[in-house]
Fold this sequence. Notes:
mainly alpha; 434 Repressor (Amino-terminal Domain); 65% helix; 0% strand
Amino acid sequence: MKKITLKTLREKRGLTQEEVSKITGKSVTYISMLETGRRNPSDATKKKLAKVYNCNIFDIFLALGLTESYKKERG
């Protein structure tokens, strides 16, 4: 099974970083930093990314390696 990453989610939708930047209102640099793990998005940005990538919010947590955080938030 292929590892889920923000980059693979973006590419699956056929989007460039520039397009995601325009849709989310975030800079291309920020999108790149998210994809390389140098930044962690806010909850609002996670929700925007899930909408843009047409995926479940859990997929965003998986892509960010934050599944334990997701489980704790859900109780």
